[in-house]
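User: Hey, my collaborator sent me this sequence without any context and asked if I could get a structure. I don't really work with proteins. Can you help?
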Amino acid sequence: MSTDTMPRKAVANGARLPGGRLYDAAELLGWLAGLNLLIVAFTIAGGVVIGLAPALVAAASVSRARVRGDAQPLLRTFAAVWRRELWRANAVLAPFAVIALLLGANLYAFGPGGGVLVVLLWVALAVVGLAATFAMTMYTHYDLPVRRYARTAVRYLLHDLPAAALVAVVTVLAVLATRFVPGLLPVLTIAAWIHAVTAICVSCYARNDRLVEAGATTSPE
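Assistant: No problem. I've predicted the 3D structure and written it out in structure-token form, which is a compact way to encode the shape of the chain:
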């Protein structure tokens, strides 16, 4: 089901790097490793609490550009986005962080007892995480007032359940990879997850926009 059309952020066109599949795979792994390092470094530079949201948004932004074929200098672009979006990114993701903290506190309090309540709390936390992921990628793709991203992300999550399922599967795979290969987290996992979910979300947003435009074209005046 499509949601309302929204103004999209522009991205420049760029050439695809030359080389065969092995070269491309190696280049992508190197790019992801560099992106992962930047996420960790800039999160720490912002004192973690303030630095995490803009680091995630910057990672999603450069991932979106790469998915759309725009070759940009990784360090310079990431740093520019992080600095520019330092406060707005925190404002966009703050509602999800607050709710997640409240759910986490309840899990800490009621977790030892188990039961249905604990299961529901985990489900609620997963939904909040999915909505935050959509808000993060929407922020790199659409120009909206800051206060609208959280509400729009929740609406989109409820309207496009296949996209939510894909993002959930990728997230679970990233968690499992980190669980069984712990060294991947500081080297690759965070960037690989953000790049993958950004690619999924951007593709779903483009499909949604086409559906909205097609509906507007065929609707009677």
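In plain terms: The helical segments are 21-45, 52-67, 74-84, 86-110, 116-141, 146-159, 161-180, 185-218. You can pass these tokens on to your collaborator as they are.
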